Amino acid sequence: MSDQPFFEHHVFFCMNTREDGRRCCGEHGAQAAQQHAKKRIKHMNMNGPGKIRINQAGCMDRCEEGPVLVVYPEGTWYTYVDTTDIDDIIDTHLVGGKVVERLKI
Fold it and tell me: Mind listing the pLDDT tens digit for each residue in 20-64?
């Protein structure tokens, strides 16, 4: 078995929705943000084994700070507002290897 991770980066977007009216990622653009990231990574030919994987996740218990995503293997948590923020996370963290401090939670 290899010591290399299957993906260089694995990004999980919380997609949770709540029916009780409390804040949730699913109602703050999570679907559109995740789809944008997935399409952009594919367009950049950075998807697949040994590269980057963009996934959906259920509740990650950080709803009040959301919408949220987490980048592994680093375990860096981010919030975001729009696709400009997602592009910054892709360009700065996933490609450039540096944390986007303004979005980190």
Answer: 777 788 888 999 999 999 999 999 999 999 999 999 999 999 988
Q: Count of residues for the chain?
A: 105
For the chain, list the domains and their CATH numbers. Answer: 9-95 (3.40.30.10)
> Is the whole model's pTM more than 0.90, yes or no?
yes
Instruction: Classify 9 as helix, strand or coil.
Output: strand
Instruction: Please state, in angstroms and as integers, the Cα–Cα distance from residue 50 to each residue in 5, 6, 53, 80, following that order.
Output: 7, 6, 9, 26
Pairing between β-strand 52-57 and β-strand 9-14 as defined by DSSP bridges? parallel
d(CA 8, CA 22): 34
